[in-house]
Amino acid sequence: MTAKNKPYNWFAFVVAGAAIAGAVTLGSGGCSSDQDALVVYCAHDQVFSERILRRFEQETGIRVIPRFDTEATKSLGLTNLLISEQKHPRCDVFWNNQVLGTAELGRQGILQAYKGVGYRRIPEAYKDPDGYWTGFAARLRVYIVNTDLMQPTAEEIERRFAADDLSRIAVARPMFGTTLSHYSVLWNLWKPDRLKQWHDGIRRREISEVAGNSTVMNLVAKGTCDLGWTDTDDFFVAKDRGDPVAMLPIRVSGETICIPNSVAIIKGTKKLQQAQQLVDFLLSAETELELATSKSRQIPLGPVKEDDLPPDVRPLQKWAEEGYDLSGLAQSRGECLAWLKSENLR
Amino acid sequence: MSLMHACGWSSLRAALIVLAAAPVCVLLARMLGNKEARFLHTGRTIQRLTWTLLLIPFLTPDLLVGYAYGNFSPFPLVRHPWMSELLYGVLLWMKLIPVGAVVMYLTPPAPLTAESIHCRRLSLTARPKTLSTYAVRLGDFVRGPARRMFPALGLIFLLAFQEFELGALLGITAGRVGSPVSWTRTLFEEQQGVIDRLAPLKWTVWPMLFNLAVLIPLIWLISRSRHLTATTEPSRKPVGRIARLSAWCYVATAFILVTVIPLAYVMRESTGGYAALLESREQLSGLSREILVGCAFAGVAAGVAYLIAAVPLIEQTGRRGIGWAKSCTVLLLVPGLAGSLIVGLSILYLFQTDWLNPLYDTPASLGIALVLFLAPRALLLQLLFRAVRPLESGWLARLLSRSTVDQQRQAAGRLLWSIRWSRHYWAMALPAIWAYWDLTSATMLHPSSMVPASVRLYNLMHYGHNAVLSAMTLLAVAVPLILAWFFASLLRPLTGRLV
Question: Which chain A residues are closer than 8 Å to B304 by Cβ?
Fold first, then answer.
């Protein structure tokens, strides 16, 4: 060994040693203590769902490892991941922030049926008859309006949507999240041709398509746009900040669009009992009330004491009762998504 | 827009950024190489200031810049897509110029000097101007000044073409006429609703072709320039006043736009967030863990990538197996050239197969993806750092290191650190910072129990701004920088003891 090479050697030795030590640390951190934990894929907003999962951990002693989705890819990212992991699932419980994606997973045989105590307290309209998934704690699709810029009335909204320039109206990209569910309802109700025509029309008039519902809310709250489509939980973020906003429920043929969260057990889980415990926990009145009293103001679907509900949620419950039936829309969602993809990637 | 068109659009954007960056890079590289300044105290101070101000915008994480400009903007970006494209282009241009300038500065001089080109031109003036005359001139340009520019500009092109995070946070979307488009976004959208696990890999063919069109000549040039470099550094033209002023204008504007405004905005917003973050122990411990996870992944990946990249650079000593080792490592360097999205998708697919599935939810998948992503960058950095051969001072420091006096040996060690080893350290630290902020692979491949900080922050950033999130972002930015500085100051005296 020459003197010239010596410093190279010690440097390489230090680097290799550090790399091995780091790799061992990472390996032991990732493999040892987490074997018994319940892996939960969660498409619901991290800021709200994390607290509930921690409470479950405290009450049951079962460790939960959540994997969250990003706002921009809401639910589709995790749904795709679950499909790709079908042969070797690592997820035990899927907490989706809507139902149609979960129903699609059920159709593909990825879910395990379970009808526990939680399932029994949820109305029929919001759960799979075979128990593959169960809905809870819903949101509504709403118009969010900047009250400094326009009157929050149905007539004014209709007038704005009829205008030639829609650049001051914001919607989230319809390929993702609850906007996809919204489009799926329109696909089913209006039939494809009318939806396509309408969609072409709003795009031609340059409606502002943005990454997600929270971006829509921010744009309207700051006055960059006058109005937009969003969900009730995003609306309340702006309202709590003191932004000049108001909301009106979106109605299609007189019915509102009520989108519950859904929970399902993944087929092949090795922690079935713990998974069932978590499902029952999420479907309990306590969790629905916690989500109702949280900043997201989710609407309970099962029976809860009305006095316990915050004032903001009570009117939402009435609107939710007028919700469009989403139970048979899994096929519409698939067709609608295929069309939207062909539109965007043309 | 189809993936092919999106690739075309992204490459057009990258090419325009390269064109706009080239003159500024040349100017800055000349400023950085100003030898006269090294002998003047004020000159040295200005040089240090130039280096600092130049590099900080590049090292400012995309997540921070995107977070600041994404939701807060004086322009209604969403209603004017061209503004969004312009802002994105300008920010990318400003962020990538330092890379080009530094690479240009470090690239060894071409074998064809300005004097020889001038002599050739004089000899050509007597001849009639034909196509072959122009071909000779072009050849001279390619072998001469362009040789120093191509690696830098090629790297800028690749980084601009593969950029993802900044665009995503700035709301780069497709759909409307004139909307900014990026192939990464289009590829991501192609995946929605697709059950075939192999499909995403098939779609990566187009971006790969665009990458390879730049990479192959770039690698060839870099490998050639190791053997074809001038033995002496040619004297560089002094930088004129107007040119110097223009360069300083760029440096100041980039520093303000890319670093000061986002940082000041996030800092101002974070004032109420620290107390809330400290109160919420759960959130603080979660963030600390995620920052450490991110640092651990980044550190390990950068270390391994450094070692892999060093193998092809080993001088042939006739030892058996060296040739094989070199060939194998060269193969490991290829995948990362396609960028982190393509690497991430490929690793995801591989780890979902029956063979590798036992390792699917372990740190291995993300670790391997990061190593593959970093390896070619590490090689490039090492090539560049090694190309700057130690001058006489390096030889003198080595002589001093053989002294029998301990203090002298330690002083020699510290000198060698500055002259030689600090380059190796930064050849690892820089990729580590890249890996720490690489969101694409981390989002797809992180084990369920190990979430790097970038993933959580990116997720939360889509909800808009708040004080706690801003405080979390600043902490996530500060910790790896403090660690990099800490290790540098730890290794510096250590070199003195080990020499």
Answer: 19, 23
